[in-house]
Amino acid sequence: MANGVSVFIRILLGLCVLSLSLEPKIMAVAIDEDERISEIHDDGDDSLPRHQLEAEGVDLSGGAVYGSGLNSELCDTDISSFLPPPYSNISEMACSPIWNTFILRYSQRDDHDMTIILSAVYTTGWVGMGFSKDGMMVGSSAMVGWFNKKGQARIQQYYLQGTSVSQVIVGKGELPLRSVPSVVVLHGPMIYLAFQVQFGSRLGRQPIILAFSTAYPHHYRLSHHVDKTTIMFDFSAGSASTLYVKSSQMKKNHGILGLLGWGVILPLGAIIARYLRQKDPLWYYLHAIIQLVGFIFVLATVLLGIQLYDKIRNANVQAHRGIGIFALVLCILQILAVFLRPNKDAKIRKYWNWYHHWFGRIALFFGALNVMLGIQVGYAGNAWKTGYGFLLGMIFVTIIVLEALLWMRKSNLEEKTPSPPSFPMNPIS
Hints:
It holds the Pfam family DOMON. There is one protein chain. The chain is an alpha+beta fold and 429 residues long. It has 2 domains: 2-30 and 248-411, Four Helix Bundle (Hemerythrin (Met), subunit A) (Up-down Bundle), CATH 1.20.120; 37-245, Immunoglobulin-like (Sandwich). 43% of the residues lie in helices and 20% in strands. It has 8 helices and 13 strands. It has helices at residues 2-30, 50-55, 69-75, 248-275, 282-311, 318-339, 349-377, 382-416; strands spanning 39-41, 94-99, 102-108, 113-121, 126-131, 141-147, 153-160, 168-170, 183-187, 190-198, 205-213, 227-234, 241-245. It has an 8-stranded antiparallel β-sheet, with no helix packed on it. It is elongated and about 120 Å long.
């Protein structure tokens, strides 16, 4: 039986290695189309030829319009004829089409003063540009401009504290605006947002969030955006370059894989190993198969997290990243321990059991902790918190019930076990 189990485990491990060798290809295919990254230069040439992008399935007919004739003409617009000073007096402003009809003009001085002018086709609603630390919307500060129904110009700084409309706070934010008033101007079909910022150092690669809505703000409370995107813009490049990054779907996939691996599959395998021992050897086969599947999910979570981290280089997720790698190492040690599993009658078997049980429990603890930490640093929202909290509650209730049944079963066995007969000893007279 031991040889059969060993062969069975080796076959499962072989399948695991095969699936992992195919995983990068599977993940590359699974990445959403709008998570593709393309580099666009200010001269209007795509980093990849148009026919090659179209062959790869990138839709160039709508959405982002890079380097088009329309956007080139918009960059040639003489803004000094309609923008007020000092925005009309700034010479040698760089101009770059960045997304849809959004055009970014900017000028950066040696004293770190920066003038930014964002323009886009406008009908109703609002247009906004946010500065993010990690590429995420939450935690960023944004300049938003619009014209209300009376035709009055409005421009405000907002702090994006959360994902709901009520958490977009007007008049707050971390952008160090200069004393020069920010302005919003409507010229033809275009709206222009102009403002000046003084950063502590010269701005280089910076995650920028762009969004718009067709609904008017109500008492300065913004309506939900119709569309948005995140770009990585290099303000220090001689010719402006733009990296198009949209990682929201990848972040969601990372969370789903981690939740399934650490929150469902691996705890299920551990529960079977502890509470189904009377079904020998069925419990062992189920435990081995389920834990290997859980390990594949955990490894996929880590690999996807590495890809996500490479996309968002400024993300402050060191603790989440470190705990995830540590928990993965514990999982690898658990799998390697299978090959060192001694026979049942070996003297060191009890020490191996202690190691396997406690390392598994420690891995599950840090895995659950890291899921909660990921929900927090990823600003996943209350739905994720509620769902994972409910899942943890169900697991704890299940363990309590099964632990009580196990204790009752052991007590019944002890009662049914006959005690050894006692023989009275007659005193020697």
